[in-house]
């Protein structure tokens, strides 16, 4: 019940985002296809009736709270009220660390979506945002410090788990098997590499797509759903929730069918192989591992393809004559 | 009759301990034999030697083994209990455990000690030195008792020695178990070395590795504790070594004459003639009614080499060998040994000459009317097993049965679980089997108190202590669920697919005040965990990195490149290639067609 | 990747592929079938070998025999007497016999109700504790009171009783077989041995193994009072006659087509043939001249058994719990007596006793072509995968087709005559890429709804066939004979009515589809594409779980690849429609029942029983994967009929 409510909340904030239309047009950028889009109701429904979302809701993980917080943050940012957005972001990162990486695009989003006649400069926005965020986080952690009876141990046993991956329970991600098989001496090094890899996307995307921060967020969420330490289908469902906002670039995507079928295959084969490994005992771990590889590959293709479509869309803004022509990248 | 005998049996044993407790002499040993149904024999050896605490302080050891003593001093260990056990005590047919279970451990090796230290850290450090030293001394891998296998029980153990009030606050109880450890002769030899008579003389000369480890159940124990007499005289440090073993008489008699258990020759079969089809070809077997003869040397493979000269020369303590068997049973003992029957009809002891070999023979039970030795039944039966299947999660279920018809049993149930067995405490359930459904929730009424210390990954195991009671004549099912963790591939043992052993649960039955508590241990469990493919490290690293590289590459590729229209630049390699190939094919087909045409024209002409 | 993707995309857009896709998929199918047919050859099948070194099959002396034979005869008499005296005494007597052998005994009552019939009985089992063992591992020796065909398993039960007594009396031995570092001990058994005698072969073992893992429903199955450790292996003895036997028939199929570890099978074979000199047969191939024909037949029988996924013996119920099990069935009239079988079992148990780890070394996916030749998964999986891939290929090509505007499509309806033309068209397209690059927007809603709806519709027949009879009889489950034929008649009637309904269903739904939704050509293409895609995915997932089932279904739904809506030629469409309705799951079921001369009713009752007791999901696959795909295909055909008729009317 609680989880249904949380999902509804996320859906409502999703609809807010859709209403702002930040995905197609903002103060600094407007797509040519801004008329092609789904209604916010449709988008909300697409999120709610997504099988992944339903499955998540049934499984009742805590990650839905994180997702809800993230969506709220984005929604608030899309309406450019900085403080609540940052509070929500603080909450989500307090719950599960990785959303902290969403700060830059969120700040940009807040900045771009301002409707006031005399908009704040990026510096002002950043300062307010960061101060709110830091104070909120310190407050939260302070509270939990008090609640745990004045010991800092909870930090290592909560965020430590996120950072150091002591728990190797199989999931759809790439980390678990990698670190099961990793040699002890290299474990720390590769942990560093993986986190760096995860963080690397933030900078690149925010700079290149400076004009479409919302899309940067979408893209990052997709990447998190693939490369974060303990990914699950709830993260995927979050990404797929934001996907319909880009209805207008779907025609520009090249491998929709291919990727959909890959992901569907993975969704069917994953449980089958997990069953073979864990219950039937007739298959070994490699079966399931292979499927997680396919799954990650499929998702990353989706992300890359979406990215391509958006870039192309952006490019057509500056060169309207190129619409519907063969393009190549050099 | 049996009741009387039974009570006497107990009382005699008590007397026999009491006589030790108020010990004046410094070394005693005694072998107690008790036949068990259907055809087994319980032999419990007991060796006990003392050292006055002053002489112990001055490292002046007489009977007390120096090697052990120095270890204890070095590790500031005030009280030590070490157990090597093998097999399973069959309570249904063998009844109460010897020594009330206080002198036995779970399968494998079990060690608990009271270490004197000011802080937990210091206690841990000393515990570490203790385990390492002991593992060297007893050739057992006790050094594997690390922090993940060490617990600090709260309710289950009490110090059995007398400790001065000054030390008690600084005493730390630490407990570790190695269920996987196979107990073997390499553990017996150092054990015998600790004895003053070193297995050369006295009852210890009966201890033979092959026999001992062929036993259906055996347990070796070492207890070191300080004892302060009531009269306020000087405290003594007392080391108490016992070896309990249950021998299958038939089996241990066998492999001298005929080691290979071929089926009995037909004439030895006892058949049921009443069957309609009975003939010498067809035989419905009957189990032999009365027990078979045996002798000391048959059962132990060798006679006893006199008595250990260091024991008392007279009095009860000098009687080295005792048997729980009906007085009406005639026993032929070797000359020189003095038989002493105790009142009650089921307990007799032998005083043995120092130098002569000693042996006795118990002939075939002559008639049915000789009463067999009474067994007193245990207060509680415990059986623990896994539930569920699959390698993701499972459950543990313990059946605790109270056979008595009138009195409930209260006890403390201690589980020490490895960290990769992640228990869900909220699933802990205690269910009264023969209770009606709408009875009030059993958990409250049955479980009195829970002490739970959750596990930390790779640092410490789960410790679960439950004080609960089982009402009279009923069975309680205690169950909880757990999740199985996946380990790093370096953390698996060589035979990973066998599974991991889970230490037996320890049950301490609280008896009415004044009596020592009784202990029961369940069997150990085999926990299968999901295993990765151990041959994969390189492949996994390569494949995963490839996927990441692909994603990274493609995304940044898109980010850094810029768009141009296709017709603004030259066509790329693959279009060229495909065009060229297509052109060739077309050319080929054209040529073929033309050739065909030419031929046809030729034909026409 | 950045280089590959454009390449892929251009290929996507290349209409030649579309033209070729039918041929490609045909090729896939042909190769797949041929591949399967090649498997029995020496080049593709391998000699079996033991990969778990600890097993040491046939390396031990077995002493079962001598006076034990007298005991055996006596027990057999007892069993016969019990059989005549009626079943209620059986459990008590067996209990007594085990007790007299000095073993711990326990019983278990169970009662299942499936399709109105009551299956009840009482299992008796006893545990021989390994001396010095610690209740961590156990091996099970099973004999069912009545075997799969309902005969009294007299010698089997007697043999297990005798062995129990024999093992108990000889549990110590001069050999040392327990775990390496226990080797100083003199004891032989390092694992507990559980002797289990089940009342029947179908429900009894299931009830027992469920209860052993506490996966049972307390209402129908009582839980076990005695338990051992982890089950490491199971051997079932089936010897339902008293004369000497000729060879041992090894049954190894588990429920849902899961197989025991190949090592267990190999051990049994090598002990029986190598040590005891008893011939071994499998899959009821009583005569097997190691030729291609017989090998193929063996393999196909194996595949059918696996595909049906029903229990083929008491051992089948153990396999889903990751407990490897086989049945040794004495068959034929020959020279070997019960003692030989007893020694085989003893030797087999000794090998299991040697195991240090749970079975994990050898293969779990294999097809046996002969007692000591097998085909491993790597070799046979491609055949099924190729057949599955053909669906996916077609689905993809249809997708791309549906993406192109009608004009571009006009010339490639996948007919050979027009490919050259299409090539020309494409050359044009090459020069001005704009036209081919422009992808028409696809209307996904109707197709998605239709396909998903069809798949959910599959639940209806599933429910009907598994539950219907219960709905009728649930108030009062009645005694055997009457219930049997009542259920039988009822279910048969239901089935045939459904078949008839199934025959007209596509046409009805087609009319509805045409008249109310007026699907465009694109939508029809998409419908087909989606349903084929789903079929392909389900089958590929299934192929990893139950290869044979996936292969059979894939083969029988191959025509779906080629049925196009052809409104132009109603006659061809009609013929194809009839052909399709002959390929309906129901019709296939009827044909197979005629072929194997089993009445349809029994098959369905068996299936319902499997669903209720064994947790068998063959029918789920049939009704929720195969049937919807078939339905969609046929509906498309029918829709073309309807279209043409509409045309004529207008």
TrEMBL record, chain A:
On whether Transcription is a keyword of this UniProt record, the answer is: no
One of its GO biological process terms is: attachment of GPI anchor to protein
Report the domain of life of the source organism.
Answer: Eukaryota
Q: Which InterPro entries match?
A: PIG-U
Q: Which cell locations does it reside in?
A: Endoplasmic reticulum membrane
Pathway as given in its UniProt record:
Glycolipid biosynthesis; glycosylphosphatidylinositol-anchor biosynthesis
Question: Which coarse location class applies to the principal site listed for this UniProt protein?
Answer: endoplasmic reticulum
One cellular component term (GO) for this entry is: GPI-anchor transamidase complex
* Protein's membrane topology: Multi-pass membrane protein
Span-the-membrane segments of this chain are 41-62, 82-110, 122-147, 189-207, 213-231, 252-275, 287-311
Keyword field? Endoplasmic reticulum, GPI-anchor biosynthesis, Membrane, Transmembrane, Transmembrane helix
**A Pfam family matched in the record:** PIG-U
- Which family does the similarity line name? Belongs to the PIGU family.
Which PANTHER family does the record associate with it?
A: GPI TRANSAMIDASE COMPONENT PIG-U, PHOSPHATIDYLINOSITOL GLYCAN ANCHOR BIOSYNTHESIS CLASS U PROTEIN
The protein here is known as Uncharacterized protein
Automatic annotation (TrEMBL), chain B:
Species of origin reads Trichoglossum hirsutum
Q: Which residues form the signal peptide?
A: 1-25
For the biological process aspect of GO, one term held by this record is:
attachment of GPI anchor to protein
The organism that produces this protein has a lineage beginning with: Eukaryota, Fungi, Dikarya, Ascomycota, Pezizomycotina
Q: What are the alphabetically sorted keywords of the record?
A: Membrane, Signal, Transmembrane, Transmembrane helix
According to the UniProt record, one GO cellular component term is: GPI-anchor transamidase complex
**Protein name (database record):** GPI transamidase component GPI16
TM ranges are: 538-560
Sections of the chain in a coiled coil: none
Which InterPro entries does the protein's record reference?
PIG-T
TrEMBL record, chain C:
- Give Gene Ontology CC terms: GPI-anchor transamidase complex
Membrane-traversing stretches:
20-41, 380-400, 444-465, 486-512, 532-560, 572-596, 616-642
- Organism domain of life: Eukaryota
Q: Which InterPro entries match?
A: Gaa1
Know the name of this protein? GPI transamidase component GAA1
Gene Ontology BP, a term = attachment of GPI anchor to protein
Q: Has the keyword Membrane been applied to this entry? A: yes
Cite the entry's keywords alphabetically. Answer: Membrane, Transmembrane, Transmembrane helix
Q: Which organism is it from?
A: Trichoglossum hirsutum
Keyword Protease annotated = no
């Amino acid at each position: 019940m609680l989880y249904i409510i949380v999902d509804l909340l996320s859906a409502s904030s999703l609809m807010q985002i859709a209403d702002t239309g930040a995905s197609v047009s903002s103060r600094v950028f407007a797509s040519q296809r801004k008329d092609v889009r789904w209604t916010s109701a449709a988008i909300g429904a697409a999120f709610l009736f997504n099988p992944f979302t339903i499955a998540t809701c049934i499984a009742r993980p805590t990650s839905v709270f994180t997702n809800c917080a993230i969506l709220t943050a984005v929604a608030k940012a899309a309406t450019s009220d900085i403080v609540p957005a940052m509070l929500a972001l603080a909450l989500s990162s307090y719950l599960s660390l990785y959303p902290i990486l969403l700060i830059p695009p969120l700040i940009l989003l807040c900045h771009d979506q301002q409707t006031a006649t005399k908009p704040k400069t990026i510096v002002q926005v950043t300062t307010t945002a960061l101060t709110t965020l830091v104070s909120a986080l310190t407050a939260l952690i302070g509270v939990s410090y008090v609640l745990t009876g004045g010991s800092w141990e909870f930090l290592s046993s909560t965020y430590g788990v996120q950072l150091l991956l002591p728990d190797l329970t199989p999931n759809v991600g790439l980390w678990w098997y990698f670190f099961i098989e990793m040699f002890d001496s290299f474990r720390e090094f590769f942990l560093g590499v993986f986190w760096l890899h995860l963080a690397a996307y933030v900078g690149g995307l925010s700079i290149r797509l400076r004009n479409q921060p919302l899309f940067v967020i979408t893209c990052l969420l997709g990447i998190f759903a693939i490369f974060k330490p303990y990914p699950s289908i709830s993260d995927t469902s979050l990404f797929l929730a934001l996907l319909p906002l880009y209805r207008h670039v779907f025609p520009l995507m090249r491998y929709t069918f291919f990727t959909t079928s890959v992901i569907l295959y993975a969704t069917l084969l994953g449980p089958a192989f997990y069953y073979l490994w864990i219950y039937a005992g007739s298959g070994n771990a490699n079966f399931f591992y292979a499927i997680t590889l396919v799954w990650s590959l499929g998702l990353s293709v989706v992300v890359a393809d979406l990215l391509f479509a958006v870039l192309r869309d952006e490019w057509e803004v500056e060169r309207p004559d190129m619409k519907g022509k063969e393009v190549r990248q050099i | 009759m049996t009741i009387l005998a039974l009570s006497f049996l107990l009382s005699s044993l008590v007397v026999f301990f009491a006589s030790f407790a108020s010990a004046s002499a410094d070394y005693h040993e005694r072998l107690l034999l008790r036949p068990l149904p259907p055809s087994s024999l319980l032999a419990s050896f007991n060796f006990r030697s003392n050292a006055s605490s002053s002489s112990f302080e001055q490292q002046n050891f007489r009977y007390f083994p120096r090697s052990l003593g120095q270890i204890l001093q070095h590790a500031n260990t005030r009280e030590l209990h070490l157990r090597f056990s093998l097999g399973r005590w069959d309570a249904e047919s063998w009844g109460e455990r010897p020594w009330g279970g206080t002198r036995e451990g779970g399968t494998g090796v079990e060690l608990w000690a009271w270490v004197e230290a000011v802080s937990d850290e210091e206690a841990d450090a000393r515990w570490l030195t203790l385990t390492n030293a002991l593992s060297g001394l007893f050739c057992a891998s006790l050094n594997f008792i690390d922090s993940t296998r060490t617990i600090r029980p709260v309710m289950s153990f009490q110090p059995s020695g007398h400790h001065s009030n000054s030390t008690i606050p600084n005493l730390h109880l630490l407990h570790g178990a190695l269920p996987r450890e196979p107990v073997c002769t390499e553990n017996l030899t150092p054990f015998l070395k600790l004895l003053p008579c070193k297995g050369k003389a006295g009852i210890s000369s009966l201890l033979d590795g092959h026999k001992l480890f062929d036993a259906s159940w055996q347990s070796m124990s070492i207890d070191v504790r300080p004892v302060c007499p009531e009269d306020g005289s000087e405290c003594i440090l007392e080391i108490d070594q016992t070896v309990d073993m249950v021998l299958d008489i038939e089996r241990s008699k066998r492999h001298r004459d005929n080691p290979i258990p071929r089926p009995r020759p037909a004439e030895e079969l006892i058949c049921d003639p009443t069957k309609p089809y009975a003939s010498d070809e067809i035989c419905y077997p009957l189990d032999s009614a009365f027990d078979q003869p045996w002798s000391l040397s048959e059962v132990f493979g060798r006679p006893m080499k006199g008595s250990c000269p260091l024991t008392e020369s007279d009095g009860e303590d000098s009687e080295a060998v005792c048997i729980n068997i009906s007085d009406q049973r005639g026993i032929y003992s070797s000359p020189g040994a003095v038989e002493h029957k105790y009142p009650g009809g089921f307990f007799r002891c032998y005083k043995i000459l120092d130098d002569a070999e000693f042996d006795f023979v118990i002939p075939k039970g002559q008639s049915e009317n000789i009463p067999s030795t009474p067994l007193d039944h245990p207060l509680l039966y415990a059986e623990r097993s896994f539930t569920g299947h699959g390698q993701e999660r499972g459950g543990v279920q313990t059946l605790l049965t109270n056979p008595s018809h009138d009195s409930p049993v209260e006890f403390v149930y201690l589980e020490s679980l490895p960290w990769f067995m992640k228990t869900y405490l909220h699933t802990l359930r205690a269910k009264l089997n023969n209770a009606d459904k709408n009875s009030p929730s059993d958990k409250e009424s049955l479980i009195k108190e829970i002490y739970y210390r959750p596990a930390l990954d790779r640092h410490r195991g789960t410790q679960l202590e439950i004080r609960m009671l089982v009402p009279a004549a009923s069975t309680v099912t205690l169950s909880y669920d757990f999740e199985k963790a996946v380990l790093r591939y370096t953390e698996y043992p060589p035979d990973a697919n066998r599974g991991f052993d889970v230490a037996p649960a320890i049950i301490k039955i609280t008896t009415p005040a004044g009596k020592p508590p009784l202990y029961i241990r369940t069997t150990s469990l085999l926990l299968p965990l999901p295993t990765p493919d151990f041959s994969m490290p390189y492949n996994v690293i390569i494949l995963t990195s490839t996927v990441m590289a692909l994603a990274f590459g493609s995304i940044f590729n898109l980010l850094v490149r810029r768009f141009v229209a296709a017709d603004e630049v030259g066509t790329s390699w693959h279009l060229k290639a495909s065009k060229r190939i297509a052109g060739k094919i077309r050319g080929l087909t054209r040529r073929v067609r033309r050739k065909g045409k030419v031929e046809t024209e030729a034909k026409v002409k | 990747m950045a280089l590959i993707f454009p390449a892929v995309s251009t290929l996507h857009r290349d209409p030649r592929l579309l033209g070729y896709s039918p041929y490609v998929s045909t090729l896939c199918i042909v190769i797949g079938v041929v591949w399967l047919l090649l498997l029995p050859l020496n080049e593709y099948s391998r000699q079996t070998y033991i990969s778990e070194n600890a097993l040491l099959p046939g390396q031990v002396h077995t002493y079962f025999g001598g006076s034990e034979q007298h005991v055996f005869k006596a027990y057999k008499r007892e069993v016969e007497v019990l059989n005549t005296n009626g079943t209620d005494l059986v459990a008590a007597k067996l209990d007594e016999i085990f007790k007299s052998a000095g073993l711990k005994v326990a019983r278990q009552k169970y009662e299942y109700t499936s399709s109105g019939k009551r299956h009840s009985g009482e299992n008796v089992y006893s545990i021989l504790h390994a001396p010095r063992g610690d209740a961590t591992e156990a091996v099970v020796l099973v004999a069912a009171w009545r075997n799969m065909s309902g005969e009294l398993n007299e010698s089997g039960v007697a043999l297990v009783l005798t062995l129990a007594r024999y093992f108990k009396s000889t549990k110590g031995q001069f050999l040392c077989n327990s775990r390496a570092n226990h080797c100083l001990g003199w004891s032989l058994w390092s694992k507990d041995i559980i002797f289990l005698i089940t009342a029947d072969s179908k429900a009894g073992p299931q009830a027992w193994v469920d209860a052993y893992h506490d996966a049972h429903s307390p209402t129908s199955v009582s839980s076990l009072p005695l338990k051992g450790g982890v089950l490491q292996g199971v051997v079932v003895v089936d010897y339902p006659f008293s004369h000497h036997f000729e060879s041992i028939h090894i049954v190894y199929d588990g429920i849902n087509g899961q197989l025991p570890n190949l090592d267990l099978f190999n051990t049994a074979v090598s002990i029986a043939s190598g040590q005891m000199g008893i011939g071994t047969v499998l899959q009821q191939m009583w005569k097997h001249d190691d030729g291609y024909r017989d090998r193929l037949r063996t393999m196909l029988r194996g595949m059918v058994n696996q595909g049906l996924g029903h229990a083929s013996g008491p051992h089948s119920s153990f396999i889903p719990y990751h407990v490897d099990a086989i049945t040794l069935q004495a068959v034929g009239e020959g020279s070997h007596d019960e003692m030989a079988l007893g020694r085989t079992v003893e030797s087999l148990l000794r090998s299991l006793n040697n195991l240090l780890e749970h079975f994990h070394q050898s293969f779990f996916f294999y097809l046996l072509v002969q007692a000591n030749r097998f085909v491993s998964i790597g070799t046979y999986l491609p055949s099924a995968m190729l057949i599955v891939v053909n669906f996916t290929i077609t689905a993809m090509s249809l997708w791309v087709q549906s993406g192109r505007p009608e004009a571009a499509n006009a010339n490639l309806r996948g007919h050979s005559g027009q490919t050259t033309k299409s090539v020309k068209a494409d050359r044009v397209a090459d020069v001005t890429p704009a036209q081919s690059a422009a992808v028409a927007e696809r209307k996904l809603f109707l197709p998605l709804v239709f396909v998903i709806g069809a798949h959910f519709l599959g639940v209806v027949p599933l429910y009907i066939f598994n539950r219907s009879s219960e709905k009728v009889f649930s108030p009062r489950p009645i005694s055997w004979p009457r219930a049997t034929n009542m259920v039988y008649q009822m279910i048969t009637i239901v089935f045939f009515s459904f078949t008839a309904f199934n025959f007209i269903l596509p046409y009805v739904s087609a009319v509805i589809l045409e008249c109310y939704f007026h699907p465009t050509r694109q939508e029809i293409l998409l419908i087909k594409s989606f349903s084929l895609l789903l079929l392909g995915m389900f089958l590929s997932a299934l192929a990893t779980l139950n290869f044979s089932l996936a292969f059979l279904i894939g083969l029988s739904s191959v025509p779906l690849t080629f049925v196009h809506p052809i409104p132009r030629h109603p006659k061809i469409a009609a013929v194809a429609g009839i052909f399709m309705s002959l390929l309906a799951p129901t019709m296939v079921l009827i044909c197979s029942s005629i072929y194997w001369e089993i009445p349809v009713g029994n098959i369905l009752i068996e299936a319902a029983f499997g669903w209720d007791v064994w947790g068998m999901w063959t029918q789920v696959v049939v009704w929720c994967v195969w049937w919807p795909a078939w339905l969609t295909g046929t509906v498309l055909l029918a829709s073309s009929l309807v279209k043409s008729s509409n045309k004529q009317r207008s």
